[in-house]
Design goal:
- The protein is 51% helix and 15% strand.
- It has 189 residues and is an alpha/beta fold.
- It has one domain.
- Strands 1, 2, 3, 4 and 5 form a 5-stranded mixed β-sheet that branches.
- A hairpin with a 2-residue loop joins strand 6 and strand 7.
- The structure holds zinc ion.
Length: 189
């Protein structure tokens, strides 16, 4: 990140259009080859869109962004199920991981809401940002309750407008946006 303090001070909306040095470097790389994204929405997929738009976005995002593919694969190695739905987070926030964890006998279930009115690149970046938060939770096996989630974020996060934020989520969102846009540009050629 160019300046994490400047990023922290920015609003979520400002962050998603911020181009920092890290994402610019990613964008400068050669376009990624595009492996089949179909595994993402396989019946046993751990990252699941709940509408056709979200499914298409995640498929396109993973085809164009190696960073997003890696993140989805990492979540695939956990006991988590992450549902991504279109919805309103309130407070002028365009995407959020709900601060609530549900347990099934074999899985920990998390939910992400995204505002579908945004551009594809911003939506994919927002999905990646929130999936990083999901992975922060799912990679720690003892986080089984909402209270444990809060404990984790008091430890790894910093407060940003009364919400917990992590530098890793900001960085991943920016990197995925840059990769997605590079893929869009390559597809137009
Ligand atoms: Zn965040």
């Amino acid at each position: 990140m160019k300046s994490s303090s400047a990023v922290r001070a920015a609003t979520w909306t400002a962050r998603v259009i911020l181009v920092v040095s890290a994402s610019a470097q990613v964008a400068a790389r050669a376009p990624q080859s595009a492996p089949s994204p179909l595994h993402v929405m396989a019946p046993d997929a751990r990252v699941r869109g709940t509408t056709s738009r979200v499914v298409a976005l995640v498929a396109e995002g993973t085809a164009r962004s190696k960073t997003l593919r890696t993140l989805v694969d990492e979540i695939g190695g956990t006991d988590g199920l992450v549902y991504i739905a279109e919805g309103n987070c309130g407070h002028e926030v365009h995407a959020c991981l709900l601060f609530s964890i549900t347990k099934t006998p074999t899985n920990r279930v998390l939910r992400i809401l995204i505002d579908p009115s945004r551009s594809d690149a911003d939506l994919v970046a927002a999905v990646a940002h929130e999936l990083q938060h999901a992975f922060e939770i799912l990679s720690v096996s003892w986080i089984q309750t909402d209270a444990a989630m809060a404990l984790l974020y008091r430890r790894i996060g910093h407060l940003d407008r009364r919400r917990y934020e992590t530098d890793a989520a900001i960085k991943i969102g920016d990197a995925v946006r840059a990769e997605f846009r590079a893929g869009e540009a390559a597809a137009r050629q």
